Task: structure prediction
Amino acid sequence: MRKTILSILLAVTSAFSVLAQNFVDEAYVDMRTGFAQTFSDGGWTGRFHVDYLNIHAKGHIADNLTYTFRHRLTKPAYADNNPLNATDFAWITWQATPKFSLTGGKHPVWFGSFEFDADPIDVFFWSKSIADLYQYYTLGVTGTYEVAPSQNLSFQFSQSPLSRGITNCFSYSLYWNGSFTPWWKTTWSLNFVDNEVRTMMNYLVLGNRFDIRNFIVELDLINKTAMHQRRPLFSDGAVILNAKYEMEKVNICLKATYDGNWSGNCVRDRFGNVIENWDVVVPAGYDVTQIAAGAEYFPLGNRNLRLHAFLSMISSMENACTLELGATWRFDLFKRK
Result:
């Protein structure tokens, strides 16, 4: 296994060296690994784990045509009818005018959530509404128009994140990325998403980020509505709060998530048994809160090496908590000066 990974990295390094003259701007590898130990009712279980080992590349095909690529070495290359299962990013962007761009290929579904928008290697604890999506990155096309400085409006047609692989389920997203003030940034979306039980889900996602000197607060509000839902507001959704205080080499972090879905958001038989959940990610009757606190340490003063320690608890596991220790590192394969 180690020889295989080393061979892949050497081959990628050689390829990027050869292609450096063909507008490769940046290529690098990053990895996150750690140890998790769960304490419950006087006992404990622990395990080592590798969360991510990724290869990244960004560059230009022409002056107004760019590409982005990210591939995970920790996932099977083909799974769930998806030939790009291990490839998160494989897209090109055409900057047609100074204000309008067109992106095609495999790229993120445009949900207005800062948790969803973050690089997964930087997220240690996920809300269920985001974590259990069948796909985060899908094939699709996105048009983006800059309506004002730092205010972008996008429309996306893509494969559904609620389907496994390439199917006839699709997602239609209207996405706004901007800010009201220098300290209040927003990423909001309205999404209509097919799922595999042929129920279209409507997502209203309001992501907000507040930057006050060294203190950063991200607040995501998610409301989900199915076609037959009797309570369209506040009966199925999530609240995600992520706070961070940044110092020179240390970040103090706090995160809390809530995912809930009213027990009536489903189809039941005459005995009261659930036949079909309209929300295929968060089932009817789900009501769970998670909280985590910890710290990140950057011993080199940059993002090339990060150590982390977190303690988390989840309401569905009474009298239990998990301690997570680990490290994230990055090295450049090529970087244009």
